[in-house]
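Example 9 (inverse folding). The structure is encoded as follows.
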């Protein structure tokens, strides 16, 4: 006889900004709406730099009335009723905030980019392993059924050997970046590790990694060589247009990942510009339509003589953003006693952070010492 009760995990939400709201609203949805019955979620606390904001957040996200509202992050990390903390501060703060929770023995799902630099990410991984707690970077896109299906198709050889992947996430629009983002905005503010690459480019990089790195057997996964160009936002020095060419051993397959704040992957907002990801193999190509953080459609174009087929993700009709897929992965990992996700092993997050470090080194992009440092704890975080 099987136990039909879902395995439920108790979440604490650290910060109450835009993505924390989307994630938390997804968490409180009934998992049966996405045909999930083995795991479920409950939000038991939220923390903000303002207790009042934490309370408003819990109410507006539809969390249980028993959930606790904290006016500082340390109280959340110390709450014995919290199993796992979702860290949703700007990336500048991930190292300090995720470390706070790991040191307190909490499991952590930390927003992307995991940290500002690879050294900070390595330190978090080291602490998570020492404390034997779960840690995962919130690359939610990887957990979409569509992404799972594409990795399966490509690893089964549907388009042959993949030699090149193009991926773009650029969100320029008719307004100039200066009009859209003032210097204080986290997208361009270097004190908050602003810039296109850590915020958007990571999606282009993760699409490349899924097919040129992740689907290799673990013992064959090798970091790419990287060359890059980066243009700085005039008013702050954050990156506003960044392009990488990565060459992945052993075939030296190329991954071209681009990101920008001045041009768009979808300028007319109607999809006219075509796919945002192209996965090119010896037997054909798979094209994925953007936005690549939440893709809903792809097309398979086999070699000449065959008909191309277009697929829509049926799960796109499900209520919510789709952030619940990664939350479900966290719950299953905790249930099964896994300290990391096989879909995004910590090692892979570290290699991706190394790639972004190299791009910054090649182009002279350094963030303020207070957010690059390994020193912990720092006041003001
Ligand atoms: N997965 C996705 O699709 C996705 C989408 C957007 C962003 N993100 C990631 O999520 C993180 C947060 O992004 P967001 O768009 O939610 O940002 P946001 O709306 O600006 O929210 C960030 C929150 O962090 C807290 N915070 C603490 N110290 C701060 C400081 N010095 N300045 C500003 N905020 C501070 C604030 O919460 P309190 O005031 O409550 O303390 C604030 O509301 C980033 O790492 C970003 O890359 C992911």
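The amino acid assigned to each position is listed next.
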């Amino acid at each position: 006889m099987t136990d039909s009760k879902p395995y439920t995990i108790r979440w604490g939400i650290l910060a109450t900004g835009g993505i924390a709201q989307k994630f938390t609203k997804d968490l409180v949805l009934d998992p049966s709406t996405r045909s999930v019955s083995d795991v479920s979620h409950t939000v038991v606390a939220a923390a903000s730099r303002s207790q009042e904001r934490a309370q408003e957040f819990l109410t507006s996200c539809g969390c249980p009335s028993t959930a606790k509202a904290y006016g500082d992050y340390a109280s959340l990390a110390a709450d014995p009723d919290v199993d796992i903390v979702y860290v949703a501060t700007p990336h500048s703060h991930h190292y300090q905030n995720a470390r706070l929770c790991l040191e307190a023995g909490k499991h952590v799902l930390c927003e992307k980019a995991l940290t500002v630099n690879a050294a900070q990410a390595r330190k978090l991984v080291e602490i998570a392993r020492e404390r034997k707690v779960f840690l995962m970077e919130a690359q939610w896109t990887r957990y979409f059924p569509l992404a799972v299906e594409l990795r399966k198709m490509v690893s089964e050889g549907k388009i042959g050997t993949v030699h090149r992947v193009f991926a773009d996430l650029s969100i320029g629009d008719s307004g100039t970046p200066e009009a859209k983002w003032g210097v204080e905005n986290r997208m361009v503010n270097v004190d908050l590790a602003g810039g296109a690459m850590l915020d958007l480019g990571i999606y282009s990089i993760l699409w490349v990694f899924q097919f040129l790195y992740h689907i290799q057997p673990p013992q064959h996964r090798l970091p790419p060589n990287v060359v890059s160009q980066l243009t700085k936002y005039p008013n702050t020095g954050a990156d506003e247009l960044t392009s990488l060419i990565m060459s992945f051993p052993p075939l030296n397959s190329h991954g071209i990942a681009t990101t920008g704040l001045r041009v768009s992957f979808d300028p007319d907002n109607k999809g006219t510009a075509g796919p945002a990801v192209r996965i090119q193999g010896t037997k054909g190509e798979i094209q994925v339509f953007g936005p690549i953080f939440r893709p809903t459609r792809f097309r398979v174009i086999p070699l000449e003589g065959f008909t191309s087929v277009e697929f829509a993700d049926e799960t796109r009709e499900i209520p919510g953003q789709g952030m619940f897929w990664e939350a479900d992965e966290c719950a299953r990992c905790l249930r099964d006693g896994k300290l990391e996700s096989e879909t995004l092993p910590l090692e892979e997050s570290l290699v991706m952070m190394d790639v972004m470090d190299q791009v910054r080194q090649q182009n002279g992009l350094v963030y303020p010492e207070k957010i690059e440092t390994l020193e912990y704890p720092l006041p003001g975080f």
